[in-house]
């Protein structure tokens, strides 16, 4: 059986949160970090810093935003597409996205047909031909007046709908972003030629997706394997587990937080032998992005750490328990609370803490207060905030500023 303490350390090690957070991170090191994670989710919300940058910074405090742009836009070592959401992904994984593109074409057929029935037949072909002829273009480069017109997804104008469909299905790639807007081009002009390999067959595709997911989860059910890349069906993952059981994987039982009935899972066959060598995560406090991969699977998070988390971006303000964009606080191998903060770029440039909630039985000791302050100062430097607005005495009881219940 894998104890709960070992399960936490396994997951944090797999997710890059057990390594030295002050080691020097150069370009190859950053690429290895993204490869170890598998992907880094991209999101536009910029309350403090965009999710992809914050995720990487949480794992290494020497990371700086231009490093990711260099890997994406200059070296093409990463590409942007879809996992469970938009993400940056190592370019060497690109061949295993080609079967996904085909699945996306099938999955999006219903929307595509509605789009064409709405009177926009021919837009896909026209948009693709123009990019092939003229080179990289943005959505704003299309359309008679640049305004939204009904008929597209999310009320996009038809050309934007066509661009997103072509990107999601592999006919286009994202060359770069300008002011966070995608710049689209043909894949052969974005993805390195060495990664434009023929698509793998179905068996190789399923094997890679399951094996690579398990390497990053360390232990998982077949449902968790299927969900990791957002590609496979549970039936495909189940069949893979049944075939590989006793060959490359074994069955384990994972203890949940607080004891209780262990949960069966699959793991690499040598995992039980490596449990004694697991590193302890650094004891520092870290404010994780709401889109951090370690908290993506909310059920798994609660089962292993006893931490319930819900992002409230889409919850009406009056109904939020905590806040708009709340950061989980990880201390060592334990989630100790959550923090609402904002980089107030429009007024005084401060990084301002507007809410703090500690978990039950967690107290704001002097040592914990110092660790939290150190993390806030790290974030302040990372985002270039002019000052830090955080009064430790005000939050000594771990209570909110009034925008939610403690």
Structure description:
- The protein has 406 residues and is of the alpha+beta class.
- It is 37% helix and 17% strand.
- It has helices spanning 4-14, 27-37, 51-59, 65-74, 98-107, 109-120, 123-134, 158-168, 202-217, 222-228, 234-244, 271-274, 298-305, 366-383, and strands at residues 40-41, 78-82, 86-90, 137-138, 173-178, 181-185, 249-254, 263-268, 285-287, 326-331, 334-343, 350-358, 387-389.
- The strands form 4 sheets. It has a 5-stranded mixed beta sheet with strand order 9-10-11-12-13, covered by helices on one side. Strands 1-3-2 form a 3-stranded antiparallel beta sheet.
- Helix 7 packs across helix 8 and helix 10 packs across helix 11.
- The radius of gyration is 22 Å and the shape is globular.
- The chain starts with a helix and ends in a 17-residue tail after the last strand.
Please give a handful of descriptors for the protein shown.
single chain, about 400 residues, alpha+beta, three-stranded antiparallel beta sheet, about 35% helix
Tell me about the largest β-sheet. Answer: 5 strands, mixed
Rg from Cα = 22 Å
Q: How do the SSEs run, as a string of H and E? A: HHEHHEEHHHEHEEHHHEEHEHEEEHE
Strand portion: 15-25%
Specify the helix fraction band.
Answer: 25-40%
- Total helices: the number is 14
Mean pLDDT equals 91
Topology:
Layout: H1 4-14, H2 27-37, E1 40-41, H3 51-59, H4 65-74, E2 78-82, E3 86-90, H5 98-107, H6 109-120, H7 123-134, E4 137-138, H8 158-168, E5 173-178, E6 181-185, H9 202-217, H10 222-228, H11 234-244, E7 249-254, E8 263-268, H12 271-274, E9 285-287, H13 298-305, E10 326-331, E11 334-343, E12 350-358, H14 366-383, E13 387-389
Parallel strand pairs: 12-13
Antiparallel strand pairs: 1-3, 2-3, 4-6, 5-6, 7-8, 9-10, 10-11, 11-12
């Amino acid at each position: 059986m894998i104890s709960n303490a070992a399960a936490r350390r396994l997951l944090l090690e797999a997710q890059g949160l057990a390594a030295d957070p002050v080691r020097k991170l150069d370009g190859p090191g950053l690429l290895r970090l993204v490869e170890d994670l598998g992907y880094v989710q991209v999101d536009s919300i910029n309350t403090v810093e965009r999710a992809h940058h914050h995720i990487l910074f949480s794992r290494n405090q020497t990371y700086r935003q231009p490093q990711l742009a260099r890997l994406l836009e200059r070296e093409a070592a990463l590409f942007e597409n879809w996992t469970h959401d938009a993400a940056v992904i190592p370019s060497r994984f690109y061949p295993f996205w080609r079967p996904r593109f085909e699945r996306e074409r099938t999955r999006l057929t219903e929307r595509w047909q509605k789009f064409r029935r709405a009177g926009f037949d021919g837009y896909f072909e026209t948009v693709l031909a123009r990019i092939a002829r003229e080179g990289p273009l943005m959505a704003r480069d299309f359309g008679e007046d640049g305004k939204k017109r009904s008929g597209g997804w999310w009320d996009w104008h038809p050309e934007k709908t066509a661009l997103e469909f072509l990107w999601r299905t592999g006919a286009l790639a994202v060359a770069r972003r300008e002011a966070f807007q995608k710049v689209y081009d043909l894949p052969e002009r974005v993805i390195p030629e060495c990664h434009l390999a023929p698509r793998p067959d179905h068996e190789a595709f399923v094997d890679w997706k399951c094996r690579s997911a398990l390497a990053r989860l360390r232990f998982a059910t077949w449902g968790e394997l299927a969900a990791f890349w957002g590609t496979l069906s549970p039936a495909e993952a189940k069949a893979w587990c049944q075939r590989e059981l006793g060959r490359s994987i074994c069955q384990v039982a994972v203890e949940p937080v607080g004891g209780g009935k262990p949960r069966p899972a699959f793991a690499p066959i040598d995992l039980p032998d490596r449990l004694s060598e697991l590193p302890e995560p650094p004891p520092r406090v870290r404010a994780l992005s709401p889109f951090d991969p370690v908290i993506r699977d909310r059920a798994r998070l609660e089962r292993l750490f006893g931490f319930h988390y819900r992002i409230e971006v889409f919850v009406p303000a009056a109904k939020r328990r905590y806040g708009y964009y709340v950061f989980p606080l990880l201390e060592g191998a334990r989630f100790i609370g959550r923090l609402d903060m904002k980089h107030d770029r429009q007024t005084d440039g401060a990084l301002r803490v507007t809410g703090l909630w500690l978990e039950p039985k967690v107290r704001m000791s002097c040592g914990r207060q110092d660790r939290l302050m150190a993390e806030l100062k790290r974030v302040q430097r990372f985002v270039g905030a002019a000052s830090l607005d955080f009064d430790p005495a005000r939050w000594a009881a771990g209570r909110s500023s009034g925008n939610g219940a403690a």
